[in-house]
């Protein structure tokens, strides 16, 4: 174009990238982390990378379910309240290793819960059905065959898959692994997420504010969100809007990061330092995504390890929603979790109030849901649109999702809601 061409209107902004497309790019940047053998106590929250097979039967041996007396059925067959049968007590078996006693006809052995049932015994008579005798005992009730005996292998036989690869380990799974004798387990490690807040005006909570400053909400929020999901989060002190400082911090952090998440500095303004610094990286791209809040997004790879980086906008609600929509699925992929997010159920609720939505974008509205007296799930916004309105996050129980093409939600409309946690207790049925 020649120098004489008069300056025309500014070029139109690039088209908005659909949410699905940006999400696909974010997911393409990450892979499930390579499995590791971890000590059981470090594996909570990790995703299993092996099928866990029972190495032996559980229970491992026939044992008593009650404190009582091990008997042969024939010896006590006629026992009743008015016709007690008296037997000599020839031994005692407590739980734990003990000399094997064999039960011979016409005798009994006192036995405790969890103790091995002596060979020859066919049932355990609970102490409640006896006179609790020590050298001789009177039995008042005849047991059924096998009564109060826990059979070896009745829980699981050897060689059975008890936990499948892909299971996210909760406390109950840890208990099962321990019962199977496992001290270590093969899991995908937690991704190490380094969280960097940017902005010269942003200071660490706990620090007094000078005029024009505000406390860093995003760093703690994003680190907590990553930890809540099972990742390991590291925070870096807030980085000012100085390109050199930011470049140095990002470079330093690459050594310990499986993924970097920044907030702030990705809009179109001057001092939008994240964008300024990372635009120089060939593998990082910045887009305007068709989402409200959270339109300016960046994603890509940095450094020799080609570490994934997600750059989120600075307003706290934009950061939060961006994490939910783009970063959370990527971290779940790194953790080794596929498919629907069990921590984020999606429900349909009836709008209690109306609100507007930008038709070109998918809108995520901070909202609260409850079940009304008729059992109908209802939802209403808890905040205005402004993505700086952070305190409404305290009352947010779900994100109401308004699809592209919709300009208004009317009271009574059905809305999809992503639940962020259980409804308040008083509202549960
Ligand atoms: P930016 O994306 O850097 O243009 O920031 C957008 C808005 O979010 C500005 O009003 C910032 O002051 C604010 N902001 C940026 N980072 C944070 C943060 N870590 N905590 C709270 N507010 C922030
Ligand atoms: Mg900024």
Secondary structure category: alpha/beta
Spell out the CATH superfamily of the largest domain: MoaB/Mog-like domain
Biggest β-sheet strands, sense, barrel? 6 strands, mixed
Query: What is the general shape?
Result: elongated
Count of helical regions? 7
Number of domains: 4
What is the gyration radius calculated from CA atoms? 32 Å
Instruction: Report mean pLDDT, rounded to a whole number.
Output: 95
Poorly predicted regions are none
Straight-line distance between termini: 68 Å
| Secondary-structure arrangement, i.e. CATH architecture of the largest domain | 3-Layer(aba) Sandwich
CATH uppermost class of the largest domain: Alpha Beta
Query: How helical, in percent, are the residues?
Result: 10-25%
Identify the strand order in the major beta sheet.
Answer: 16-13-17-21-20-18
CATH topology of the largest domain: Molybdenum Cofactor Biosythetic Enzyme, Chain A
List bound small molecules. Answer: adenosine monophosphate, magnesium ion
Strand content: 25-35%
Number of strands: 28
Task: Describe this structure as you would to a colleague.
It is a single chain. It contains 7 helices and 28 strands. It is of the alpha/beta class and 429 residues long. It has 4 domains: 19-33 and 189-335, Molybdenum Cofactor Biosythetic Enzyme, Chain A (3-Layer(aba) Sandwich); 36-58 and 154-188, Alpha-Beta Complex (Molybdopterin biosynthesis moea protein, domain 2); 63-150, Beta Complex (Molybdopterin biosynthesis moeA protein, domain 3), CATH 2.170.190; 346-427, MoeA, C-terminal, domain IV (Beta-clip), CATH 2.40.340. It has a 6-stranded mixed sheet with strand order 16-13-17-21-20-18, with helices on both faces. Strands 8-5-7-6-9 form a 5-stranded mixed sheet. Strand 20 (296-302) and strand 21 form a beta hairpin. Helix 1 (19-28) crosses helix 7 and helix 4 (218-228) runs parallel beside helix 7 (316-335). The longest helix is centred in the last third of the chain and has 20 residues, at 316-335. It is elongated and about 115 Å long. Bound molecules: adenosine monophosphate and magnesium ion (MG). The site of magnesium ion (MG) has 5 residues, from loops.
């Amino acid at each position: 174009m020649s120098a004489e061409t008069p300056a025309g209107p500014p070029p139109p902004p690039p088209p908005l990238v659909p949410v699905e497309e940006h999400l696909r790019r974010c997911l393409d940047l990450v892979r499930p982390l390579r499995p590791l053998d971890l000590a059981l106590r470090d594996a909570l929250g990790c995703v299993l990378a092996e099928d866990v097979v029972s190495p032996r039967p559980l229970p491992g041996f026939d044992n008593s379910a009650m404190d009582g007396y091990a008997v042969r059925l024939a010896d006590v067959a006629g026992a009743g309240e008015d016709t007690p049968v008296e037997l000599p007590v020839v031994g005692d078996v407590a739980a734990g290793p003990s000399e094997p006693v064999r039960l011979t006809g016409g005798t009994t052995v006192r036995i405790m819960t969890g103790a091995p049932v002596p060979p020859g015994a066919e049932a355990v008579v609970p102490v409640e059905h006896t006179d609790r005798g020590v050298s001789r005992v009177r039995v008042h009730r005849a047991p059924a065959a096998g009564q109060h005996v826990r059979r070896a292998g009745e829980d699981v036989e050897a060689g059975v898959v008890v936990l499948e690869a892909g299971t996210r380990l909760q406390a109950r799974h840890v208990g099962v692994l321990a019962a199977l004798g496992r001290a270590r387990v093969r899991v995908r490690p937690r991704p190490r997420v380094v969280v960097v807040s940017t902005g010269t005006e942003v200071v660490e909570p706990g620090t007094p504010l000078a005029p024009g400053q505000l406390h860093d909400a995003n760093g703690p929020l994003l680190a907590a969100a990553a930890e809540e999901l099972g990742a390991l989060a590291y925070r870096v002190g807030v980085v000012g809007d100085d390109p050199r400082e930011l470049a140095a911090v990002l470079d330093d952090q690459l050594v310990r990061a499986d993924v970097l998440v920044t907030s702030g500095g990705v809009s179109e303004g001057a001092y939008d330092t994240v964008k300024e610094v990372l635009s120089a990286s060939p593998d990082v791209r910045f887009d305007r995504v068709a989402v409200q809040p959270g339109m300016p997004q960046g994603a890509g790879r940095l450094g020799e390890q080609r570490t994934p980086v997600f750059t989120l906008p600075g307003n706290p609600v934009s950061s939060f929603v961006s994490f939910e929509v783009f970063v959370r699925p990527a971290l779940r992929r790194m953790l080794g979790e596929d498919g629907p997010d069990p921590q984020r159920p999606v429900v349909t609720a009836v709008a209690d109030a109306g609100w507007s939505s930008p038709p070109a974008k998918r809108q995520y509205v901070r909202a609260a849901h409850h079940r009304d007296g008729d059992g109908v799930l209802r939802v209403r916004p808890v905040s205005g649109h402004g993505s700086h309105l952070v305190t409404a996050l305290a009352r947010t129980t779900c994100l109401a999702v308004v699809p592209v093409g919709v300009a208004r939600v009317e009271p009574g409309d059905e809305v999809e809601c992503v639940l962020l946690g259980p409804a308040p207790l008083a509202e549960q049925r």
